[in-house]
Amino acid sequence: MTKEIVCVVGARPNFMKMAPILQGLSAHPELRAYLVHTGQHYDEEMSRVFFGELNLPKPDRDLEVGSDSHALQTARIMTRFDEVLEERKPRMVLVVGDVNSTLACSLVAAKRGIEVAHVEAGLRSRDRSMPEEINRLVTDAVTDLFFATSPDAIENLVAEGVPRSKVHLVGNPMIDTLRLHLPAARARRAAAKFGLEEGNYALVTLHRPSNVDQPDLLHRIVRALEALSVRIPVIFPVHPRTRGRIADVGVPSSPALQFVDPLGYVEFLSLQASARLVLTDSGGVQEETTALGVPCLTHRANTERPITNSEGTNRLLGTDTAAIIPAAFEVLDGGAVPPRCPALWDGHAGGRIAAVLHAHLSPG
């Protein structure tokens, strides 16, 4: 008998994590994946680009929840997802990451007595001012099957009372997607499109409210980027919302500092792969730069992915913008530490996850 697993995506990082899992599940015909897109990231054009580039199937259901406050968005997802579970009555719900959709759909499934599997379980920043940290904690509190990307995540779960037998170290499905698409990304040569020389520019990605919603802080970050652009060209793909905030604090006139529109997955990966360094506040970018061996500076006080510091290319700068230039110049002067890629970040996490799901759901 076919067992249905409702697989949930809601925001763009989820797409990169879900694609290899769906591919892995295709090797087990007795497991049927039913894909639900909550529409948490509702930009139709960007969603279309990501689904197309990653070869994700068209969602079986799009909840079209759109943007709102955390509370209203979460409530809307829960209401609409509950209708899906009432109709489908699946064997399991599989969620990935730490967005509002992850939390909302896990809660609905748990309330209905449906098993929850969480990919990226156990990641912790220990900073509850981050909405994502609340989502991680609550999701793991109702999860039945835990998929960890790194040993520190397992340690966190065991310390929180999760039986070790429920936790599986499977690697990082986001890196599966990266390794699959890296040849196409290198062939894209996106740097040339923006007039940049491969290996001789800095790539910036900042989106967290703690960085972009405080005018004084954002002003200092932009001025630091302007100063960095004197030494090396800087390119910053900017979300429209963040672009408006940058305009409010004053856009620098430096020709070596480019603010560009958001990019598709392959084009952004192309820029990451040939960057001299990356400045970010994104957890996913910390992981991707680690896999690529590109130096990464993270403008945050903490990270839920400490393995990118201990084994990867990532360095936490804290929240003091004065740290940006010295750290960047250190990298440019040859101060980057040779990276090691974490165990099992080898492009096969999706298959491991599917194999565990098959064993878990098989009779006996």
Which strand order spans the largest sheet, edge to edge or round the barrel?
3-2-1-4-5-6-7
Mean pLDDT: 94
Tell me the β content: 15-25%
Quaternary arrangement of the chains shown?
Answer: single chain
Query: How can the largest sheet be summarized?
Result: 7 strands, parallel
The radius of gyration over CA amounts to 20 Å
Q: What is the 3D form?
A: globular
Task: Show the helix and strand layout.
Elements: E1 3-9, H1 12-25, E2 31-37, H2 44-53, E3 61-62, H3 70-88, E4 92-96, H4 100-111, E5 115-119, H5 131-141, E6 145-148, H6 151-159, E7 167-169, H7 173-188, H8 190-193, E8 202-205, H9 209-212, H10 215-231, E9 234-237, H11 240-249, E10 257-260, H12 265-273, E11 277-280, H13 283-292, E12 296-298, H14 307-310, E13 314-316, H15 324-332, H16 349-361
Parallel strand pairs: 1-2, 1-4, 2-3, 4-5, 5-6, 6-7, 8-9, 8-11, 9-10, 11-12, 12-13
Structure description:
- The two termini are 14 Å apart.
- The longest helix has 19 residues, at 70-88.
- The radius of gyration is 20 Å and the shape is globular.
- α10 crosses α11 (240-249).
- It has helices at 12-25, 44-53, 70-88, 100-111, 131-141, 151-159, 173-188, 190-193, 209-212, 215-231, 240-249, 265-273, 283-292, 307-310, 324-332, 349-361; strands spanning 3-9, 31-37, 61-62, 92-96, 115-119, 145-148, 167-169, 202-205, 234-237, 257-260, 277-280, 296-298, 314-316.
- A 7-stranded parallel beta sheet has the order 3-2-1-4-5-6-7, sandwiched between helices. It has a 6-stranded parallel beta sheet with strand order 10-9-8-11-12-13, sandwiched between helices.
- It has 364 residues and is of the alpha/beta class.
